[in-house]
Each structure stands twice: as C-alpha cells, then as structure tokens.
From TrEMBL:
Annotated family: Belongs to the glycosyltransferase 2 family. OpgH subfamily.
Name this protein carries in UniProt: Glucans biosynthesis glucosyltransferase H
Keyword flag Transmembrane: yes
GO cellular component assignments: plasma membrane
Bilayer topology: Multi-pass membrane protein
C-alpha cells in the first residue's frame, strides 16, 4: 500500500499531528485522575496530576512525531518528498548559479581535525564541477595563542594541499557574541559577496552533492531562508559514542520525517549542516543582549532557534528536510562530555523564555523555543512528580491508601480495577518511549541494503535492543542531571562555552563517582523509601533506581574505546557510515600521511587573513 500526501495543506498536516497528541494526552490525564481519586483527591495528588499532565504532553509530541515519520517512511514511495514539499520540487539537473560560502566557525578546536573535515567537503564539492561557485572560510574565535598559531599553520598547509586560494582564514581577537557573533562578523565583512552560506561545525562534513542540491533548492524557492539537514553521527569509537551513533541513526530520521511533515516551512535551525540565505539572515537575525544579571541574561548561548524565529518573522521559510545522506557530525565520546554540553544547551534554551514573548514571532517559532525549554524542564517536572508520590505515600490520612490497601503505593501487584489502570498507564508510557526505537530498527531491517549496511539482521536487532536498554537505564540519570541544571540556573549559576571534547578517552572510576554523586544519592534514597514505604512496589520503581545507582560504573565502562571496538568486531552497533563509508568519510577514518608533522614545520605559512577579492588583517 502506498501513501500519498502530496498537496496536503499545512493546516491539515498540523491537525493530523495535533489531534492525536491532544487526544492521547486527554486520555492519559483522565486515566491518571481515575487512578488517583477513587476516594477523593489530596493536595499531593492534585500536584501529581498537574505535573503528570505537563510531562505527558512532551512524551506525546515525541511519540507522534515518530509515528508520523514511521508511517511516511513505511508507506510513501518518496518519504522525503512527502515530508518536505521543497524536496519534491528539486531539479537535480539544474545548474548551480549562486555564489555560496562554506563557513566553519572554530573555537580552541584541534586545528588539524577541523581542516581535514573542511578538506573532505572541499574535495567532494570539487567533484560536482561547481567548485568555482564556492569559497571556504575558517572563522576562528580561538583564545589560546598556541592553538591560533597551529590554525595558521594548518590553514597554510590545507591551501597548499588543495592548490587553491579558496580557503580563507580569519581570527578575531575577542570572541564577542560567541559563535553567533563570529558568523555576524563574517556577514559584515563578506556577506554581500554571497547569495548563500553553508554553516559547518568543527566536526561537520557535508557532501558536494548534497550541498549542490541545497543551493538548487534555495535558487528554486526564493522564500526559503534556511534549509536544515539531518546530521548523521559518525566516527565514534567509545561504547557510549557507538550507542548514541546507532540510536541517532536508527531513530532520528523517522522523527525528522514526522517533524518535517507537519512543520513544513515553519521548521527550525540547529546551528550547522544547514544552508542560509545571507541577505535576510544578516539583516534580520541580530541577536539581542538580554538585560539583567545571571545565567538568563547577556549573550544568548543557543543562538540557532532564535535566528530561525527571526528569519521567519522577516517573511522567509525555514525547512527541516529529512535528508541525512551527505550530512555528518561527531558526537561527545563519553557520558560526562555529553552532560557538559547538555548543561550549556540547557542554559541557552532557558534563555529563550525571554525571547519567545517578543512581538511578531510566528506561533511555531514560539512552539520551537517552548519545546526547547520543555526538553529540560520536563526532568524537574518528573522529579517533582516522584516527590509528590512519596509525599502521598507518607500521608497516612489519605483515604486512597486505605482503599488500595496498607502500604500498597501507586503501583501494586494486588488485583483491582484501579491498579489495572495504573499498570496500563505505566506500560503505555514505556511503550510510547520505546516503540519509536523499535519501529526505526524494524524499517531498517525491511530494506535488504540497509540491513546489510547495519551489520545484518541479527546484528541490527541486537544493536537495537542494546541501545534501547541503555536508553531506559540512562533516562533517570539524565533526569537527575537535568534537574540539577535547571535548579543551578535558577540559583544564578552560569557556565562558559568552552572547547568541546571530540576525541575518545576513558573516564576513571574516581572521576565518575565524583560526577555522579547526586545520582547515587537519588538512587539510594529512592530505594530506601520504596523498601520502607511500599516494598511490594519495588518492581515498578526499579527502572528509576538501577540507572542512578550504576551510573558511575556505566560511565566508566561505556567510555572504553576497546569495548566499543569489540562490539564492532561482533557486528554490533554498526552503521553504514562505518561499513560502507562515503568518499567524504573514508579519509577521516585513519591518519593521513599528508598531515604528518605539520605543526611546527618550517615554512608552514605566514600569519595572515585572506578575504574574498581583498586582503584583510
């Protein structure tokens, strides 16, 4: 059976998404109310119901994004075009006429690593035959002078290797505005020389074919302001990185297909691996400095959502296209590196609470920022829900405890209509969280080519089970971390945007124990409370207890490259970017002799900044 959604209006698409989200939320809240109130509602139970309602909406949004994506991927002859009409109108034979800048902002990064990725993108664009339409920029905000010197040497070597003057390097002495300020300064100098720009992170790689198609889409759709691709994770060696890499590869694309289906031209921007129309971007996307003091003031740390909202306000569309082939990025190698990045993102997203009330923003732009806030606020909401549950258990005057039986708790194995409803609700929530992962894996297994590229049917399903199990175990760990993030921000604690760890490295158990102290306290306290107040409910609380108590060990074990590579030898947690790497990725999987001993080499090149058509210092 084939599904056709061509010509379905944006409003109809949004109703297809919103109706099941709201209906499922209403049903779940009704169920929860009936579970809590057989003999009337206490204040703690009313608090539980409110917290549950707010949290469940977030789960329903994730679930229905995934389900819509699965339906389109499974039944549409052209899933990408069904999701994003901008793809349906793409003429891949059209010439690339526009001038486009490939910009890579860097901040205290490993210079050789960044330059090799820019080299891979350059070579791929060269093969399209349209290299003359592109220029490449390394935009440095590096504050470490020794790294800055290495950047200049690597830039000179890259230009020498490629035999071209198309690779331009510029370093700012002060990184005002962070990455957004770096891009804005590029716009002030050279933005008028280009129709479009493709923004890369220091760990990004994109294929020339995909970049050429993005330019064609921009040429054919003059109202498109930003087109965002799905960046596929690559080159992970640690077990943690491989788990994240497989999970992102198996699930992310059905989610993005669903998102693209109902958001259409009101999509979002994620800061890299996207093409941007330069004129309206630099005219309308100046970020405000938030007034006041504390972490929610000053320069906006998460610039991308705001820039998408501003260019949408200027009348241009933002498209999320579910295209991952040819768009790649790397991910944090360990859980602690992931958490460090997540803390910065949390602060940046909470700053959006001061932006989403601005005049003139589209409803979906406000939705994107609210969703970003909710992605972190959901954790303390669930935490408060658990706290309210404990308070409810301690309330000996609660008639519902007597109704369910002494010490029964919310989830008990004693038969009864309300207990059946509670168990049904619990299982429904778990299914909503887990089912999209299985559906993503199932879709891959149906395709013989993809199945082979993921290591075969057995390896694919075993990998899916491993990644899902780890996700379940780690969910309460991240809940504790993110609750701490939100609380610390509300208490005025800010963080800096430091250099990101990109290379695999082991985490010592002592470091893991120190960093997971809060998780250990949470897991131990919850275990003690359950054993004291409702021991027969222990089975239902185990998913919340096991992860936090084992989190230091999990962090140390999953930081191992040796264990990650052992999984790969058995055909587990494999992805096509590893089993059949593209011409862009293959050179990055091993050291390149052409880059040996570049740092400190005599005659590596002058300290200079190259510009388009002119020299600047």
């Amino acid at each position: 059976m084939e599904l056709s959604v061509d010509g379905v209006a944006p409003l109809a698409r949004r109703l297809v998404f919103a109706v099941p989200v709201l209906s499922m939320t209403a049903a779940a809240v009704t169920f929860m109310y009936q579970v809590l109130c057989p003999m009337g509602m206490t204040p703690a139970e009313w608090g539980m119901l409110v917290l549950f309602s707010l949290s469940f909406v977030w789960i329903a949004i994730w679930f229905w994004n995934s389900m819509l994506g699965f339906i389109i991927q499974a039944f549409s002859p052209n899933p990408g075009e069904a999701s994003s009409p901008i793809l349906a109108n793409l003429d891949r034979g059209a010439p690339v006429r526009a001038k486009t800048a490939i910009v890579m902002p860097i901040y205290n990064e490993e210079p050789e690593r960044a330059c090799r990725r820019l080299q891979a993108t350059f070579r791929s664009i060269e093969q399209t035959g349209y290299l003359d339409r592109f220029e490449f920029f390394l935009l440095s905000d590096t504050t470490d002078l020794s790294i800055a010197d290495e950047e200049r040497q690597c830039h000179a070597h890259l230009s020498e290797l490629l035999g071209t003057g198309k690779i331009h390097y510029r370093r700012r002495e002060k990184n005002t505005g962070r990455k957004a300020g770096n891009i804005a300064e590029f716009g002030q100098r050279w933005g008028k020389d280009f129709d479009f720009m493709v923004v890369l992170d220091a760990d990004s790689v994109m294929s020339g074919g995909l970049i050429a198609d993005l330019v064609r889409m921009m040429q054919e759709n003059p109202d498109a302001g930003i087109i965002q691709t799905v960046a596929r994770p690559i080159l992970s060696e640690t077990l943690f990185g491989r788990l994240q890499q497989f999970g992102g590869r198996a699930t992310a694309e059905i989610v993005n297909t669903g998102v693209g289906f109902w958001q259409m031209g009101d999509g979002n921007y994620y800061g890299h691996n996207a093409i941007i129309r330069t004129a309206p971007f630099f005219e309308s996307c100046d970020l405000p400095i938030l007034k006041g003091k504390g972490p929610l003031s000053g320069e906006i740390m998460s610039h991308d959502f705001v820039e998408a909202a501003y260019i949408r306000r200027a009348g241009y569309k933002v498209w999320n296209v579910p295209v991952g082939e040819g768009s790649y990025e790397e991910i944090p190698p360990t859980l602690l590196d992931y958490v460090k990045r997540d803390r910065r993102w949390c602060q940046g997203n909470l700053q959006h609470s001061r932006v989403l009330i601005e005049k003139g923003l589209s409803p979906l732009s406000r939705f994107h920022m609210a969703s970003g806030i909710m992605s972190y606020v959901a954790s303390p909401l669930w935490f408060l829900f658990l706290l309210a549950s404990v308070v409810n258990l301690l309330d000996q005057s609660n008639p519902n405890l007597a109704y369910h039986g002494p010490g029964s708790g919310l989830f008990t194995l004693v038969p009864g209509d309300w207990n059946v409803m509670a168990i049904t609700l619990f299982c429904t929530i778990m299914a909503m969280l887990i089912l999209p992962k299985f559906l993503g894996t199932f879709l891959l297994a149906l395709n013989a080519r993809e199945r082979a590229r993921f290591g075969g049917a057995v390896g694919l399903f075993a990998s899916g089970l491993a990644e899902t199990a780890m996700s379940v175990i780690m969910a309460p760990v991240m809940m504790v971390f993110q609750t701490g993030f939100v609380v610390s921000i509300l208490l005025g604690v800010s963080v800096k945007w430091d250099r990101q760890a990109r290379n695999g490295h082991s985490v010592a158990i002592a470091e893991a124990l120190r960093r997971h102290a809060t998780n250990l306290v949470f897991g131990g306290a919850l275990l003690a409370l359950v054993l004291t107040l409702a021991p027969q409910s222990l089975l239902w609380f185990l998913p919340l207890i096991v992860g936090p108590l084992l989190s230091p060990l999990i962090t140390t074990v999953t930081s191992s490259r040796r264990l990650g590579n052992a999984f790969a030898r058995f055909g587990l947690l494999m992805t096509p970017e590893e089993t059949a790497p593209s011409i862009e990725i293959a050179p990055l999987r091993k050291p390149d002799p052409a880059w040996a001993n570049i740092i400190g080499r005599a005659g590596a090149g002058p300290i200079s900044v190259a510009a388009v058509g002119t020299a600047a210092t």
